[in-house]
Write a structure and sequence with these properties.
18 strands, 32% helix, Alkaline Phosphatase, subunit A, 462 residues
């Protein structure tokens, strides 16, 4: 059944799903034409987040004519698009470049991981500014999937937003992974990867051994009966609890979602295409603990999209110091540990979605929170560089083989068609049929535009 966005928002407002009436009323006061800008052009989006900051100069924006202390060790290779080159570390990307767009002019002002990740995954700088967090703080702006879960014009799936295979920087989580001021109702369906086994699980499916589903349903029916004769203190509390319980029961029984997590049911050939979780690396070693799910994460994302999940965030790494943050030995790290699994799995995802007829309706984004410095440091590494970096986009109507924007002669600053995370945010919302200029309100009633930037129309064929 199709439910209008207005009807849905009114129902969940009454149900207490939103923690702040200002958030709802600020949206409900806008007309449908202000919020919806036509039918959605995509049904789903997958963001592969390369936490730590990949080196754009050693991957998608090489500078072969630059001095040695900038150029680096790697050679560029031809791709399926004449005149477009990538690093020799990316042979699989080179084979599908006609299906991919590259943005070489991304930039923002955050030089630290937490703030850069926040702006990358919400489209807005954290209210705390450019800083790392040393104690947990509440998230303010919602993640893309959370905002879309509220604003989408139709409810077509049990789970509109999922994240895997962990909460990144899990000791002090980066506040960019959840619903923010929209409330916990819009947090993602969290999938956890079991590194040692190469499997996945979700607590939403957990059911106490002594409490079968039929008994839970009986309790729900009893609660409804009691509430009919003796309502709880507030209507919103009553309906909110009841609806949350109904949602929990729904998830526990969701065959599509529970089946999606059973990644072992995929053929060996398919799993190998993405990279087995224990696959050997080019230097003959196996991936170290914590990195073993990298290729399989993308395969799971494809399965979740098939199960109807609209937005999937994949966090490539979990901790600082064990990710793309190559202050030391940048070239060895990129060559032997970081790029090969990324190259193989991203290309496999694009090809697999295309083979299954899902690529046109699924936007796939590969990005880190920033790039690396043009100048190589004294430890053969590259440091943080948000002033210019590259991201890749495929599917969802993207023009294959298109390069958007350009950096200067050493990859330091954009010189053409500069792009911000706010522009990327606006593009994502636009492709889902949502007006990126929609105004939403936080808990204090302050208005915030959904996205600070503007859609990057040139990336798409129409």
């Amino acid at each position: 059944m199709t439910i209008s966005r207005r009807t849905w928002l009114q129902s969940i407002a009454g149900a207490g799903y939103l923690t702040n009436a200002d958030v709802v009323s600020g949206i409900l006061n806008a007309s449908e034409s202000e919020i919806l800008i036509g039918p959605p052009k995509i049904r789903s989006c997958i963001i592969v987040f390369y936490y730590g900051g990949p080196s754009h100069l050693d991957m998608f924006d090489m500078k072969p004519g630059a001095p040695d202390n900038i150029r680096g060790e790697f050679k560029q290779i031809s791709t399926t698009v004449p005149g477009t080159f990538v690093s020799e570390l990316l042979p699989e990307h080179a084979k599908i470049m006609h299906k991919i767009s590259v943005i070489r002019s991304m930039h923002h002002s955050n030089r630290l991981h937490d703030s850069a990740s926040t702006e990358s995954l919400t489209g807005r700088q954290s209210p705390q500014g450019d800083r790392e967090e040393f104690k947990p703080i509440p998230q303010f702006y919602p993640a893309y999937g959370a905002a879309l879960a509220m604003l989408r014009s139709q409810i077509e799936c049990d789970v509109p937003f999922a994240a895997l295979p962990w909460v990144f920087k899990n000791v002090i989580p980066v506040p960019c992974q959840w619903g923010g001021f929209l409330g916990k109702a819009y947090d993602p369906f969290q999938v956890i990867g079991e590194v040692a086994k190469g499997t996945y699980s979700a607590s939403a499916f957990d059911l106490p051994a002594d409490l079968p589903i039929l008994r839970l349903k009986a309790r729900q029916d009893l609660l409804k009966s009691i509430n009919t004769h003796q309502p709880l203190r507030s209507v919103s509390a009553k309906h909110g609890f009841g609806d949350h319980m109904a949602k929990a029961l729904e998830l526990m029984q969701s065959r599509e979602l529970s089946k999606a997590l059973r990644i072992h049911e995929e053929s060996d050939a398919t799993r190998a295409a993405y990279g087995f979780y224990d696959e050997k690396l080019p230097d003959g070693t196996r991936e170290i603990s914590g990195h073993q799910l990298r290729g399989q994460n993308l395969l799971l994302a494809r399965r979740l999209v098939e199960a109807g999940v609209a937005f999937v965030n994949i966090y490539d790494f979990r901790q600082q110091g064990q990710n793309w943050d190559s202050h030391n030995d940048n070239f060895t790290e990129h060559k032997n540990r970081l790029v090969p699994p990324m190259d193989k799995s991203f290309a496999a995802l694009v090809n697999d979605l295309e083979d299954r007829g899902l690529l046109d309706s699924t936007l796939v984004i590969g990005m880190g929170e920033f790039g690396r410095t043009p100048k190589i440091n004294g430890n053969a590494g590259r440091d943080h560089w948000p002033d210019c970096y590259s991201i890749t986009i495929a599917g969802g109507g993207v023009k294959g083989g298109y390069v958007h924007g350009a950096s200067d002669h050493i990859g330091a600053y954009p010189v053409e068609k500069a792009v911000t995370p706010g522009d990327l945010a606006a593009t994502i919302y636009w492709r889902f049929g949502v007006n990126p200029y929609t105004e939403i309100h936080d808990q204090t009633g302050r208005p915030h535009r959904l996205a600070e930037g503007s859609p990057i129309y040139e990336l798409f064929d129409s």
